[in-house]
């Protein structure tokens, strides 16, 4: 059974018929061709598929595309076009917060959502760590990623 959805993806209106059980990650990757959303585990454990839905970081492999009818979705491609991306890129480079890059889209979208959160200045390192722990990285550990996020959130190092 297919269901019609209409949503905004990276600021562009999109309408499609999707299978009722289609995951948002599949809709983004297969239907819209947005391959930056990485799917590794498919079970919501790794967080590499994280996108922003109505301002909140969510795992797209656990979200049905049909649940996003009428909602605003931002993928890593959308963040790359946004005003926050140059700062994210610079902080990741300055703090050596990336290695192989597979998890990077999940971190970029998660941190972009944090940067837009009104309470961002109040986040401690533990809270930053808790939020980014939803994305699994096997290369860097999280110290450098927390440092990059801390810098992006306007916290002193």
From TrEMBL:
The keyword Iron-sulfur applies. Keywords: 2Fe-2S, Iron, Iron-sulfur, Metal-binding, Oxidoreductase. GO terms for molecular function: 2 iron, 2 sulfur cluster binding; metal ion binding; oxidoreductase activity. It comes from Sphingosinicella soli. The keyword Cytoplasm does not apply. The lineage of its organism: Bacteria, Pseudomonadati, Pseudomonadota, Alphaproteobacteria, Sphingomonadales. PROSITE patterns: 2FE2S_FER_1 (PS00197), 2FE2S_FER_2 (PS51085). It comes from the Bacteria. Residues 3-79 form the 2Fe-2S ferredoxin-type domain. This is Aerobic-type carbon monoxide dehydrogenase small subunit (CoxS/CutS family). Pfam families: Fer2 (PF00111), Fer2_2 (PF01799).
């Amino acid at each position: 059974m297919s269901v019609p959805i209409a949503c905004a993806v990276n600021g562009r209106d999109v309408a499609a018929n999707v299978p009722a059980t289609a995951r948002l990650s599949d809709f983004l990757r297969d239907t819209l061709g947005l391959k930056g959303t990485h799917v590794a585990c498919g079970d919501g454990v790794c967080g590499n598929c994280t996108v922003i839905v109505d301002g909140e970081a969510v795992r797209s492999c656990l979200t049905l595309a049909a649940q996003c009818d009428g909602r605003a979705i931002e993928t890593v491609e959308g963040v790359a076009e946004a005003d926050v991306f140059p700062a994210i890129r610079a902080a990741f480079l300055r703090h050596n917060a990336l290695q192989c890059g597979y998890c990077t889209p999940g971190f970029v979208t998660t941190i972009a959502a944090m940067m837009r959160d009104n309470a961002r200045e109040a986040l401690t390192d533990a809270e930053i760590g808790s939020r980014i722990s939803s994305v699994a990285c096997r290369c860097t550990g999280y110290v450098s990623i927390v440092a990059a996020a801390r810098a992006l959130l306007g916290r002193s190092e």
